[in-house]
Structures
1.
Amino acid sequence: MKALSVSKAVTALMLAGLVVLPLYSHLSGNIFILTLFTRVIILALAAASLNLIMGFGGMMSFGHAAYLGIGGYAVGMLAQEGVGSGFIQFPVALAASAIYALVIGALSLRTRGVYFIMITLAFAQMAYYVASGLARYGGDDGLTVYKRSDFSGLVNLSNRTQFYYLCLACLFGVILLIWRIVNSRFGLVLQGLRSNEQRMQAIGFPAKRYRLVCFVISGTMCGLAGALLANNTDFVSPAVMYWTRSGDLMVMVILGGMGTLFGPVMGAVVYLLLEEFLSQITEYWALIMGPLLLLIVLFGRGGIMGLLGRLNRG
Amino acid sequence: MLLVVEQFLNGLQFGLLLFLLAAGLTLVFGIMDLVNLAHGSLYMMGAYFAATFAAWTGSFLLGALLALGATLILGIVLEMSALRHLYGRDHLDHVLATFGLILFFDEAVRLIWGPAGLALPLPAWLTVPVPILHGIHYPAYRLAIIVVALLVALLLYLGVMRTRVGMLIRAGASNREMIGALGINIKLLYTLVFGLGAALAGLAGMMQAPILTVQIGMGENILILAFVIIVIGGIGSIRGAFLAAIFVGMIDTLGRAFLPNLLRQVLSGAAASTAAPALSSMLIYLLMAIVLVVRPEGLFPANRR
């Protein structure tokens, strides 16, 4: 193995860029770029959590945006009820996501293939309708979060730079955790199940239990992204759970490279920047984005990471 | 009594409409093994075509007929240019590629027809109420939808089960290589099936158009309903899609109509009126969850026939 492959170099460059971005923002006075990248990092966190079940666990969930909403609503609802402390809001957001993941995972994992894609989609739509029906918490119109989570002086979420670094720390923490999970015995069993379930079961591993645990871990991670997202936009609405948002997350994972550690981060950065860039050129940015996705699927196997890997070899 | 009959017919009408959409989806999935999220876009295009052609020609029927042809052609072009290359690939690739197509179609419609919705006015002879039972009247147009959809369902059944092309389609579904080796042009067959599915989706869209407005994104909500239906019915099974569509249409319509009153019996008025809409929207998803828990392959798994 070469000491420095192209994909590693690009990844390192991207991560270094993310770390020094606030410095650039301060020096150039460009505040917008900091806000944009805070969003990118939060969605990269969500995409990384999806990658854990999709890339490593082989579970194609089409309802991952539900956790973004659950985490967000946990923060928003608690804030509405006068509980402003982040030490309560964040654990509640994570616990709510974990419970939701446990229930729908236990039901959905009875099915596989396309049925699994569809049933996770249906459950997310259900969550969407529940949120639309919450009249006390804004219903369809969504809920404004007037005060960001309060971590009693530890970090100030209203300070752009501190919030940015909090999100970045969460992203790195989650990726580290995923790396540890994937290389543990548990992770190896999961990847074994992805490649040959029958054999793994014949050896004596309970497939469903392993998958369910993985599903819950992934959902909890995405709940964290939801709690951060609500703080970032100061607003949470059923729209964050809409199925197109789940589609966006899937696109980020595939675009970056499914089943690679940093692929989803790369995918989120490229996808969201492309969206931003195209929407500045033309109002009809989706007219270019849509066919682009089609081309990526048709010709770009393995996403950006796969492409970089081929560059290295070729 | 009047309300019950009316809502029952509304449920039947909605269910049949959903069947037209789900039939195309399940055909394409069952035969080409392709998950097509852009099916809802074809539904939307059908409605936009119908509204445009009806305005040009000044005739509702002529407009609908032209729109049917246009969606058929659009489906064939789409299959030949893009989707053909996805056969045999991972389902995830299908989801992504067709997700891209949804973005494209929504934006293309915004560019061509503008962000505001269109209306497709009905001709006078379809707006009159028709007496169906003693003292009960029902809108002629909704009756027409029921009749047309039932007719299409029957034709589809006869076409697939009783004709040579239908036989080839069924054969292609069970073994693609074999039927190719027997000298059948499988590519053409697939294009034909996709075009048929597109035309069915377009038909559903244009029939729904006069009831709702023609707008961007109209295909997306109903597409998810169609997915629920084919999952409940068993993917690839037209019979399953038919029964599940009627079932879902009924439950959705009747739930919306009667659930608020039922809830008011147990809950306070305010709580009931806020909970009812959410609960009735959830009803079909709950149904799907129950079906999948009991029968993970749907009610009528196609491959076990």
2.
Amino acid sequence: MKLRKVSAAAATALVLALTATACGGDNGGDSSGSGSDGGKTIKIGIKYDQPGLGLKEPDGSFSGFDVDVATYVAKELGYKPDQIEWVETKSADRENALSRGDVKMIAATYSITDERKQKVDFAGPYLLAHQDLLVKADSDIKEGTDLNGKKLCSVTGSTSAQNVKKEIAPKAQLQELGGYSECIAGLQSGALDAVTTDDAILAGFAAQDQYKGQFKLTGLKLSNENYGIGVKKGDTETLNKINDALEKMVSDGAWEKAVKDNFGPANYKNEPAPKIGQIVQ
Amino acid sequence: MFDFLSDYDDPTLLGAFWVTVQLTVLSAVGSLIWGTLLAAMRVSPVPLMRGFGTAYVNVVRNIPLTVIIVFTSLGLANIFGVTMGTEDLKDRAFRLAVLGLVAYTAAFVCEAIRSGINTVPVGQAEAARAIGLSFSQVLRLVVLPQAFRSVIGPLANVLIALTKNTTVAATIGVAEAALLMKEMIENEAQTLLIGAIFALGFVVLTLPTGLFLGWLSKRLAVKR
Amino acid sequence: MTSVLYDAPGPRAKRRNVLFSVVFFVLVALLLWWVWQTMDEKGQLEWALWKPFTTSEAWTTYLLPGLADTLKAAALSMVIALPLGAILGIARMSDHRWVRIPAGAVVEFFRAIPVLLLMLFANEFYVRSTGIPSDERPLYAVVTGLVLYNASVLAEVVRAGILSLPKGQSEAAMAIGLRKSQTMSGILLPQAVTAMLPAIVSQLVVIVKDTALGGVMIGFTELLNTRSTLAANYANVIPSFIVVAVIFVVLNFILTSFASWLERRLRRSKRSTGAVLGAEKVDDLNAAEVGGTYGTGAGGSI
């Protein structure tokens, strides 16, 4: 009887202790919270999983065109590269991340669209990309209409996938997967005939060592994607500074260099630098 | 505020939830059958089958469902050429998703049924053996019918979880509710409102199921 | 091992069992061989795809930080959800209507909503009403979502467990003059928790797996999320999924092994103190009616 009482007391004590630690954990987190603006760093949202645009490298550094552009812009805003805090912003979370102030700006293959412009402001554009198809090097797909009856892959819910369904090849079989890597693995194994999204993204994947020489871009310009740098709605000050920085980046040749560094190996024929505020419909 | 909903016609909001319901029902039936077989293996006289049942449950139950579903598409279909009897990618994704959901949910159904078998008084099985029934007869005629009645509650919980789990099928492109949600979020830039609409949809699907099966389990409970 | 379900095998049954075993073994072996063969054919066994996992960078940059976040979120959620679940479960059995009904509503409501959406809403809640810095917020949101859902499920487990205890337990407790709270904390809860351990553990495994939902939309850097970054780097989608699956299986296996060790210990100590419930009785109690939910495998990715 005695022992049971002890074990019961122990159980109760355990529950209490757990509750206490739980609360303790919460409070600890709260009090240690220093505002996100503290210190002189800038938070920039990028993608972590797109080779050539925004990629987290094995050594923990970041590479890609978006990263280079953002680094340049940050420099013009007065931040050294080591003062930049990179944050992964998934497509679904980009508008919210900006409006909440989680990040100061986002350079993550962020196409300027009317719906998004209602939620955030865009600097740029800094790159004009197009929706395109990635196919096997020996594929005979040349036109959008060649896709009818073929197996086409894109990322779940993405605008490229919707675009194909509605306009380009309604009879194409669309496979939607969680990420571009998954699509390209399917393309490589022969289970899929083409992968579609922005050509800049596709080029980056095609240039990876594992895939070199296996794929080609069809060069079809199925849509215009104007990549802009997103900032919080109404943050005109930052917006103007970013636009100035982007203009300077193009004029002093840094833009061209970034293009060469990142898209050169991918053999990606990019469009010339877009003019600020000039959105190609 | 809600006018964007009418922009979506392939599928519509209701159509997408209908696919969710189809996924749920088919997977529920499949996992009930496969789960029962697994439970039978786990209590069977053949040691190797017992081992397989145990190993299956312990491995499958411990892998995130997302990984299992992705495996069905990237692994089974793309690498192993399991086409599920169709060349149409939409149909194939749907069938693969059902397969993945069945494989996963069956592990939980198996454990629920096995615990149900434990609730059947020992005397029942002993009496059945005494009148000369074989293992499969004992299980089919005496033990399982009683076990099922006592596990309706736990199975209801598995069914509710399954309903919500069908959303994972979006990762391999099945056009159900979650995929439509992702599409809307991508286009409309109003994540919270859209999230709320879909949350409500799931409450409508799962709450009545849970309440009905809860009532049923009380009615059918074996009074001892 | 003998079972009540079948007789001890005689010579004929033994032969039959051996035959079944052999056939079954051959089938499984054939399946495995086919899997290996096809993967080889499709180039999935190429060393280049697997080599990254032998480098330290793959682990230190991607997998280990992801694993750390997964563990952190899972541990916090368990520690908060367990007591909260117990409280909700007890509250649902309260004699007072004004306690019972709200508790029931909370449980039913949070069980019905997909966890990912709970995380999404929690994230937004923290933005609007607290000052949690943005790099910690995903963790808070993930833990909140997991706690709300799993505490509701655990509440049902606890309730079912307490209901399944023999009536004599609470009657005897009242007879010796214990108050209601003493009866609950001293008599009913300890017995119920022991009996329901398997169901509780199943739900803990669900928590570990469901941390993966945090990576889908609110950018929590858990294991599945860092896997996609890794796969983008090394172009090894399928091997990366296999490695992550193995990590999860090992992780959950450790968790369940620990739990069954704990269960054995608790039962032993019970027997030695001459508990009312004999060992066999407890075995029966582990069954479904106690389990309430024998692990739901819940989650969903939306």
